[in-house]
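Take a look at my tokenised protein here and describe the backbone shape.
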Amino acid sequence: MLLCIDIGNTNTVLAVFDRDTLVHSWRIKTDVRATADELGLLLRGLLAPPAVAITAVSASSTVPAALRALRGMLTRYYSDLPAVIVEPGIRTGVPMAVDNPKEAGADRVVNTLAAYTLFGGPAVVVDFGTSTNFDVVGPRGEYLGGALTAGIEISVDALAVRAAQLRRVELVKPARAIGKNTVECLQSGVVFGFAGQVDGIVRRLAAELGEPLAAVVATGGLASVVIDECETITHFEPMLTLIGLRLVFERNPVTS
């Protein structure tokens, strides 16, 4: 079975695939101070046999410190397994139609691959994470670039820190758009505001492409907060990045 690891700024998501079938998945917080040994012990706890028998690993990280720990963990605890880490030089099958391909995060590249494989192109991936990423997939599966905005939790945290009478609230849809108290007002602004932002940016991206989109795919840990209010989202695939990591592994046959 293939273990896929996506280390993001806030959360680390793991999934185990038996060929193309997702068997297990977990979401844990990312700790940039975690050592290779701590990461190894955590994974060994999650993957305790006989429930999960891992035969290979595919991973990516947008966090340099966590990436170093990941490499150390794989070397120390899983050196006998074939492993692929998405970075420059790894075959993804995604043509990079941007100014500097090395600037593109590994998650954006594998999201492009997964979206094109599942839904075709052109398409837009909206990844709701620490930042909200809009990734544009060309008609032949190429990565065309996109847009970045502050994520939902970052925006809520900033309001709570900078505004004396505001605080963090539960991220759920309010009963109405016209809030009758501070909590409802914040929830309305977050949920309907971010939904409007998503629709506005997606429509601009589609207009610039000049052709109909095959799909607008939402993914990421915070997608469920707003996607029901988004008019442009056509598909929700919470495991899109993990599926992309599986596809990258298939393109890079390695041995231990």
